[in-house]
Write a structure and sequence with these properties.
Elements lengths: L6 H4 L19 E3 L10 H11 L11 H11 L6 E4 L1 H13 L5 E6 L4 H8 L3 E6 L8 H6 L5 E7 L11 H10 L5 E5 L14 H7 L3 E6 L12 E4 L2 H9 L8 H12 L1 H24 L11 E4 L5 H10 L2 E6 L3 E5 L3 H12 L5
Parallel strand pairs: 1-10, 3-4, 3-5, 5-6, 6-7
Antiparallel strand pairs: 2-8, 7-8, 9-11, 10-11
The structure holds pyridoxal-5'-phosphate.
The site of pyridoxal-5'-phosphate has 13 residues, from α4.
Length: 356
């Protein structure tokens, strides 16, 4: 006899975090496998982290008051519309717990963020995965067709992880007009700060226009605080309230709260860094195009290389030069825009990689 685990948990795939690689000979290792920001936090943010560490014997503010107020001010929304959590993946799980359970369905595009199927199953709901058009973009028509009386939540990831493709604002507006208003639509904008396409979804605008729409955002990517675990939801007040209730008590540490507040106050400086990463992505994409690769347009801090059956082979070649990239076996590889020398190493590997 042993303690019994729910069968749905036994069947869960384990979340595959982006791997690190070891140094090879005299090559220092680089990690381009988790869409992290390669730059350290701003000195002022580091100071806030060090200062709040002095109070780490105390519990954090469970209501995350200062950060919530700062977000409300920054996005001109009511603080009652905001819920925070341990990274946006934590918030996404809180949302699921709030709106879906056994017998309910959650629709999302596939392939998309790997955590979606896992957290859908954890809450006991059924994932409804709608294939991307050409393996790249959301198929909103098919997502509409997938709605049933059991649908409780639709996730729209834009820019989409791992393909980098955006959903167009106009298309999502048309989609939302047809979605029954009792279904929550969450626009996962984890990478929104990197987007430069004026036609892309403007999630906050849709939140103000539709009573069943919310956005999910994070401090992990553009703001470079992945290790501190803080994300947020801006959505309908009744949903935000429920999402605050499903949060792990004291989940967002005081260190994370103060670093996030400081990051918002120094957003301009951080967005300059985003701009630099975008320039690096544009350069990397053009080098890949010169090498003959046909890439989907990315509006995020990563690119998607659909290498199909050769994915694992390529990833192994990158590991030989101490660079970790993220394989999706049999489909493709996601390469985060990190340090330029690492990207140069990847290009070097690709220049020797026969893709015909
Ligand atoms: C689309 C998307 N949403 C959410 C997350 C979660 O990020 P975090 O939990 O660090 O906020 C990620 C992380 O990679 C992501 O790609």
């Amino acid at each position: 006899m042993e303690p019994q685990i729910r069968s749905v948990i036994n069947e869960l795939p384990t979340y595959k975090a982006g791997k690190k690689v070891s140094a090879v000979a005299d090559l220092s290792p680089y990690k381009l496998s988790s869409n992290e920001n390669p730059t350290q936090p701003l000195p002022s943010v580091l100071k806030a982290i060090a200062d709040s560490a002095l109070d780490i014997n105390r519990y954090p503010d469970p209501n995350v008051t200062e950060l919530t107020n700062e977000l409300a001010k920054r996005f001109a929304v009511d603080s009652d519309s905001i819920a925070t959590g341990t990274g946006s993946v934590g918030v996404c799980q809180q949302i699921m717990q709030a709106v879906a359970g056994a017998g309910d369905e959650v629709i999302y595009a596939w392939r998309s963020f790997e955590a979606y199927p896992i957290i859908t199953k954890i809450v006991g709901a059924t994932p409804v995965e709608v294939p991307l058009t050409n393996g790249i973009e959301h198929d909103l028509d098919a997502m509409l067709q997938a709605i049933t009386p059991r649908t409780k939540l639709i996730l729209v990831c834009t820019p989409n992880n791992p393909t980098g493709a955006i959903v167009k604002h106009q298309k999502l507006t048309e989609f939302l007009a047809k979605v029954p208003k009792n279904i929550l639509v969450v626009i996962d904008e984890a990478y929104v700060e990197f987007n430069q396409d004026p036609d892309a979804v403007r999630g906050l605008e849709l939140f103000t226009e539709y009573k069943n729409v919310g956005v999910l955002r994070t401090f992990s990517k553009a703001y470079g605080l992945a290790g501190l675990r803080v994300g947020y939801f801006i959505g309908p007040k009744n949903v935000a309230e429920a999402v605050r209730k499903t949060a792990v008590p004291f989940g967002v540490s005081s260190v994370a709260q103060s670093a996030a507040v400081l990051s918002l106050q120094h957003e301009d400086e951080l967005l300059l860094r985003v701009e630099e990463l975008n320039q690096l992505r544009v350069w990397f994409e053009s080098e890949l195009t010169k090498l003959g690769f046909n890439l989907p347009a990315s509006q995020a801090n990563f690119v998607w290389l659909p290498l199909g059956e050769r994915t694992d082979e390529f990833v192994a070649e990158c590991a030989k030069v101490a660079v970790a990239v993220r394989p999706f076996s049999g489909e493709g590889v996601r390469i985060s825009i990190g340090e330029k020398p690492a990207l140069e190493r990847v290009l070097n590997v690709l220049s020797r990689f026969n893709v015909s």
